[in-house]
Write a structure and sequence with these properties.
Low-confidence stretches: none
Strand content: under 5%
Structural class: mainly alpha
Distance between the termini: 47 Å
Oligomer: single chain
């Protein structure tokens, strides 16, 4: 059962990667990379259950926190660059 879940997660990761490469806007790409990170956490968790090693859940939690902080940082960076192009150089 978990093997089928791992295969489905890998298929969804491939779709998210394709969206990240083809996304028409930067925000589509950011969302696709964030989805890829979420699916990576799911894959790490499923792999931990498949191998009988629950410590992989700790690794998945750390990866979740890093992915969340990175998504916020990239979004703020892109938003700041868009405002700078409009002539507003103040960081918000």
């Amino acid at each position: 059962m978990f093997a089928a879940a791992a295969i489905a997660i890998l298929a969804a990761m491939a779709a998210a990667l394709a969206r990240a490469l083809m996304g028409p806007t930067v925000f589509d790409r950011i969302l696709a990379v964030n989805s890829f990170g979420t699916l990576s956490v799911l894959l790490i968790s499923v792999y931990g259950f498949l191998t009988g090693r629950p410590e992989f859940l700790d690794i998945a939690l750390v990866y979740t926190l890093i992915s969340f902080i990175a998504a916020i940082a990239v979004t703020k960076f892109v938003k700041g660059n868009d405002e700078n192009k409009a002539g507003d150089s103040e960081w918000r």
